[in-house]
Amino acid sequence: MVLVATGVVAWPTAEEHLSDLPFLDSVVAALTPSSAHAWPLTGVPADAIADRPALAVKIENSVDARPQTGLTAADVVWEQVVEGGITRFVAVYHSDLPPEIGPVRSIRPMDPAIAAPLAGLLAFSGGVPTYVTAAQDAGLQVVSQDSGADGFHRTTTRAAPHNVYAVPQTLVDQADAAHRASPGAQFDHSAAGERPTAVAAGQPTTTLELTLSGVSRPRWTWSAADGRWLRSEGSTPAVEADGRRIGATNVVVLRVDVVATEARDPAGNPVPETILTGTGRALVASGGYTVEATWSKPGTGDRVTLAGADGAPVTLAPGTTWVELVPNSDGAVDIA
């Protein structure tokens, strides 16, 4: 299976690989669970796990929406192509509820398949009724700004529609009796003393250059000093509103089919839908290494599973994860 179109990476010699082991061992020791409890979405150890549901929120990623607020606090962030080739995020919060997040935008047709395995809340600013119904039918509790739900507000520092923000704790407090349970694990994480699959069986990688569309080209660069992948929007470092650099412990790239729906945005662009059931190629990045994999998701309510060439489950490093949904048709994944 060939996933990477360009970017030839030399495998380290045995001597070079051995020289890396002390650093990798320290990273693994720092990131693997050492207690009986671990947050289900990150695998990070904790003395106790908060009994609350997962909160998935639609966050905008147009130029007018940057810098965003609260993305670094998310356990998992999914990036998807929407109309006009721009991208939006589904940011999932569980282990950390920041004071504020945003800008919050509207639901899209692929969101139920992303959020349904969490069995929690899906928050957004509004959207096409059929998309909202699909989320409810998938077992999610929807919390929408346009329906008058608590927890949303508009800031005066930005123009509409880029000014809807939310308070996660207020959103979570509205969970009904059927949506108060903590989520199950969405990905497999390496156990204590074990290396994540990319580190154990992958190739050393410095950068991931992704093409999601003609106008969306995120880049991820491994920072050994930070122990995580740092995000850029093209050549511009991605930061939060408070100046913090946006990054992730793991980056999971899923190659997916994206189809045009009959819906149109105000500019006449077709609303695309990412097909997130079935199977496809994947690339998993952890600890400065990448490994090719296969993703599988049988149904809307099933989580995505990752398998290596040998069929064994692919494990991630404990920590935050960004999932990049790269179109099969005109997307690209290059590593170096």
Key words describing this protein structure:
twelve-stranded mixed beta sheet, 5 helices, mainly beta, 336 residues, YerB-like fold, 12% helix, YerB-like_sf, DUF3048_C
- Beta-strand segment tally: 20
What structural class do helix, strand and pairing data support?
mainly beta
CATH top level assignment of the largest domain: Alpha Beta
Number of domains: 2
What is the CATH topology of the largest domain? YerB-like fold
**Biggest sheet descriptor:** 12 strands, mixed
Radius of gyration: 19 Å
The oligomeric state of the chains shown is: single chain
Integer average pLDDT: 91
Distance between the termini: 18 Å
Strand content: 25-35%
CATH architecture of the largest domain: 3-Layer(bba) Sandwich
What is the share of helical residues? 10-25%
Order of helices and strands: HEEEHEHEEEHHEEEEEEEEEEEEE
> Globular, elongated, flat, extended or rod-shaped: what is the shape?
globular
Number of helices: 5
CATH superfamily of the largest domain: YerB-like
Unreliable parts: 1-23, 26-34
Give a structural overview.
By secondary structure, this protein is mainly beta. The protein folds into two domains: 171 residues, YerB-like (YerB-like fold), CATH 3.50.90; 125 residues, 3-Layer(bba) Sandwich (YerB-like fold). The chain is 12% helix and 32% strand. β11 and β12 form a beta hairpin. The N terminus is likely disordered.
